[in-house]
Amino acid sequence: MNATTMQANTRQDSATAKLMEQILYEVKRVVVGQDRFLERVMVAMLAQGHLLVEGVPGLAKTLTVKTLASTVRGRFKRIQFTPDLVPSDLVGTRIYNQKSGDFSTSLGPVFTNLLLADEINRAPAKVQSALLEVMQERQVTIAGETHRVPSPFLVMATQNPIETEGTYPLPEAQVDRFMMKVLVDYPTDEEEYVIVERVTGPAVEVMPVATTEQLAALQGECRRVYVDPSLVQYAVKLVSATRDPARHGLKDLRKFITFGASPRATINLTEGARALAMLRGRTYALPEDMTDLVPDVLRHRVVLSYEALSEGMNSDALVAQIMAKIPAPARPLEHEKLVA
Predict the structure, then answer these.
(1) Where is the Sigma-54 factor interaction domain (predicted)?
(2) Which one of 65, 163, 210, 228 has the largest count of C-beta atoms within 10 Å of its C-beta?
(3) What dotted CATH number matches 21-219?
(4) Any alpha helices (H) in 73-124, and if so which ranges?
(5) CATH number of 225-339
């Protein structure tokens, strides 16, 4: 690589880092705290994945996604899932025009850049499947015509951990299509004080700092972030341990697992490490980029047995035991030189 190419790459990396910083700065002008949640939203967006979020109402889930859409000049839509929802309410339908005698296509709210599916577990399985199909295929077929959703496209589905009466739990096979399941907790006392001040004070005007085209370019750059083969092998071992714990020296865990994670988990760990490294201003992934995401990527993919539930074991505790047994690879030598 010659000096000119290196300088061009350095300028590009600097411009990318500055743009990411501007996006995060604008969102944090509105959203107080929730740094980890916002980081996961950005990781999902850069890695072209989708998020399943669990948290009680009022924790700025909607505000975060809506504000992010404003900063990148993207379209934002919110669907409140209810038991009477039908698939056409999401994807759209054909409408007959009596005057012209023709049918026209009315596209549904899934045709947006950032979609918030609020309380996805309150809608019946048929509606859940319709949304999950769009997430996977990124297109909808209505009356034989295929319509692609805009790019970029991010779905954030929320689940309410309270008031579970009348809900339809997502099947394990469909939950697997979410890149991560993120748990959102209450803010600290200090953060809540700032939240009250900000909400009761003058409204903050969000400034658009990027375009959807620039965001798509960032997604392309994310795919070029270097992931060492040892890191990919680490992801393979972690996911393999959820399927066959005995092979990795964890035979005591076998009775707690009904089904382990699919290859999508390995892919999502690798793509997520790329995106997190890019957010942290690097063109290469480090072990901590992957280890930080392991609980979020695996917690919804490991199906626990009745024995695990009876003993009070949850998927986070199980994943923690696997991570304690399987060590992360050492940092690359190049990074050690840079630190030194």
Answers:
(1) 20-160
(2) 65
(3) 3.40.50.300
(4) 88-91
(5) 1.10.8.80
